[in-house]
Write a structure and sequence with these properties.
With about 375 residues, the protein is mostly beta strands. Helix content is about 0%, strand content about 45%. It folds into four domains: about 120 residues, no CATH class; about 110 residues, Rossmann fold (3-Layer(aba) Sandwich), CATH 3.40.50; about 100 residues, Immunoglobulin-like; about 40 residues, no CATH class. It has one helix and 30 strands. The longest helix has 5 residues. The N and C termini lie far apart (about 60 Å).
Length: about 375
């Protein structure tokens, strides 16, 4: 692999180890001589080939690592200019503030001027700070757990995000990408992100620019960041069943209502509204009180089918205070009715229509059924 933000690359060059860190001697190609020549600096690496011993030297990094400004080997002082290695098990990187070439911010490594992302640690979510203009090759080379990435308004160029088609498996699980830039960043390759079935969130005023872009326009789902609220997946879990899906979502402070929509091929097939206690509007489905989150089962869906969902937490004056989107696929088999989760074999004690009026027998449409164990079920009668 090439190193990152300067013209490097030479697995053929020698390296050395100091204080538990491997360093590769940095080289650059001289077109006049046709040779790779040392630049006088080194990069942090997890592998180099030692031609003195004809062996490959490897290193696995874990926990916290510290990168100095310079390193001394056999009497020579080398400035540390970059990093290119497997950091999948590293929890934090700390670069010496005296380093003239790179710096660390919250464990990730950037060029000293802050305009280039050099490498990110293996996290599930990562937000690139404002001021970064370039994402270099291998920045996310080993971020196998990354699912959510937020890119700043300052971003101008994405060289590549390694994916499952490459020799590394970084970003193979990346599914939710927010880009705040009103101008679509240029892409270095046509496959910088393998999973284009994920979700791309972009500024509302720039939707058409992204939709028509030669690279970003290839995403299956392109949605707008509305009123500064980026739709993010965190907090919502979905347990799919045969023609059904159980949604669990967190309670949001100051929310006065919740809205859940399920869509198939962009067409809304189900819409549910809940109050601040997570109860379906107009029908009390569970006792009020303190709750860490809410759960609801949506049925009547097509079996073995893919759906999208949108869930909002709504505050006073209809203000959106949290937003979640995602996709799921139901299991195969017969469809089931819409119902609240966690019902049991208890005996039916009461039945109501959708407006809460008592029923003496099942009536066509949506019925609300109460059971002896206190549970409530929404039943679709045809």
């Amino acid at each position: 692999m090439c190193a990152l933000f300067c013209t490097i690359c030479a697995w053929s060059a020698n390296g050395f180890e100091v204080d538990g860190i491997l360093y590769q001697i940095e080289t650059t190609y001289n077109s006049a001589t046709g040779q790779s020549e040392p630049t006088g600096g080194v990069i942090v690496t997890s592998f180099y080939y030692d031609y003195n011993t004809y062996t490959g030297i490897t290193k696995e990094y874990t926990g916290n690592i510290t990168i100095p400004a310079t390193v001394t080997h056999e009497g020579t002082v080398y400035p540390v200019k970059g990093i290119s290695c497997d950091l999948s098990k590293v929890s934090n990187i700390n670069v010496s503030p005296d380093n003239s070439y790179i710096k660390s911010i919250d464990g990730a490594v950037y060029s000293k001027d802050g305009d280039t992302l050099i490498c990110c640690l293996n996290r599930t979510e990562f937000s690139i700070p404002e001021g970064v203009k370039i994402i270099r090759e291998s920045s996310f080379g080993y971020c196998n757990d990354l699912t959510t990435l937020i890119m700043p308004a300052s971003l101008e160029y994405v060289e590549t995000l390694y994916n499952e088609k490459s020799d590394q498996e970084g970003t193979k699980n990346l599914k939710y990408i927010t880009i705040k830039s009103t101008t679509p960043p240029e892409a270095g390759y046509d496959d910088i992100i393998y999973n284009k079935n994920g979700y791309l969130y972009v500024p509302k005023e720039s939707y058409s620019l992204y939709d028509e872009h030669w690279y970003w326009g290839g995403f299956k789902h392109i949605q707008c960041i509305e009123d500064g609220v980026a739709a993010v997946p965190g907090g919502v879990t979905i347990e799919t069943g045969t023609g059904s899906a159980v949604f669990t979502w967190p309670k949001s402070d100051n929310a006065v209502a919740y809205e859940l929509k399920v869509l198939k091929d962009g067409v809304e097939v189900c819409s549910l509204e809940f109050n601040a206690q997570g109860q379906v509007t107009g029908i009390v489905l569970r006792s009020a009180g303190e709750s860490e989150g809410f759960k609801f089962k949506v049925g009547g869906l097509e079996a073995d089918s893919e759906y999208d969902f949108r869930l909002k937490a709504i505050g006073v004056n209809n203000a959106e205070i949290a937003s979640y989107t995602g996709t799921f696929r139901t299991d195969g088999g017969m469809n089931v009715a819409v119902e609240e989760s966690n019902t049991s074999d208890a005996v039916e004690t009461a039945r109501y229509d959708i407006n809460g009026r008592p029923l003496n027998a099942p009536a066509k449409g949506v019925n609300i059924v109460k059971y002896s164990d206190g549970s409530v079920e929404k039943e679709l009668v045809k």
